[in-house]
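User: Some background: our group keeps a shared notebook of sequences we're curious about, and every so often someone picks one and asks for a predicted structure to add to the entry. Today it's my turn. The entry only has the sequence so far, pasted here. Could you supply the structure so I can complete it?
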Amino acid sequence: MSQKLAWIETELNALREQGLYNTIRALNSPQGAWLEVDGRRVLNLCSNNYLGLANHPRLREAAKAAIDRMGIGPAAVRSIAGTTTLHLELENKLAAFKKVEAALTFQSGFNANIAVIPALVGKGDVIFSDQLNHASIIDGCRLSRAEIVAYEHNNVDDLRKKIAQTGEYGRRIIISDGVFSMDGDIAPLPELYEVAEEHDILLMVDDAHGEGVLGNGGRGIVDHFGLHDKVDIEVGTMSKAFGVVGGMVAGKQILIDWLKQRARPFLFSSAMTLPDVAACLEAVDMLAESTELVDRLWANAETFKQGMKQLGFDTGVTQTPIVPVMLGEAPLAQQFSRRLFEEGVFAMAIGFPTVPKGKARIRVMNSAAHTPEDLETALAAFERVGKSLGVI
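Assistant: Of course. Here's the predicted structure to add to the notebook entry:
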């Protein structure tokens, strides 16, 4: 091995010894309540496919029809020759769905964050960021070169203190996840809005795990709290509840106009592919038509959470269908995940650096695709493994 890369082997061995090496399993089936993973049929409890749309017939047909009509790749960035009528139709429908003036789509939710933050703040500006914000927010903040001030997770009093302690800056912005992906808790958005208004600071929420989950028919955290026209920037993804891929920024028309001029992933990376755009359009239509899938998601989540609590598991502070099964140390979480897989349940261990050291967990993702029988199967497997490993 080249000595230039020898340090990587040392680091990889250290990860293995600490139980932090991430073994990535391969799927040989479409997303759904059940998967074929590494040649085994297993119950799926770790995909972000909240509403079961990732393999829905309506989305598949929409994607196929778009291929026949428009082809596959856009072959250009949006600002040159990559904007199609399908892209514009999706953005118009997203804006109507989110009850905002305008929306802009990106290749992913990650790209949406690294697009919008550096376009709004830079050197001489300041960002107030929740300590548990997603990696894409952290990277977007770093790319902006603005001063980053982290406040204690969901602690509005600490945010006020940090604002009071911060000196003079040009532009200021408060950024928070809407639903925190590892713990399943919800940002105190009404209180964040009050602080933003008091100090005349921009307010941005990343609703990746709220789209299709919170609010009426899955319209998100802003709808959930009735804060339309009060949150300046909503960022979202279409790779989770929508079942496809892509990101979005929603808000005032002037915000979207500015992003079209300055958002680097919009200007320098090819547009979303046409079948993806068409499938996203179909997903928006389905959510606008009925709340059935969202209602089923929440009913399943409640059943599973109650079952886990009755068994004696610690499910943290979750308020959503994300259920963290708190185990503490990474080796135990990895062992628990392997034992679940042997029992026919696919639920991955999450450890450092995704979560703090000492807070490793199994992160369960409920979905509308699961049946009551599926949930019984999952609870029985957790009970067997939990007892055998001395967790319960």
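Suggested note for the entry: The chain has two domains: 19-50+291-388, 57-289. The first strand starts at residue 34 and ends at 37.
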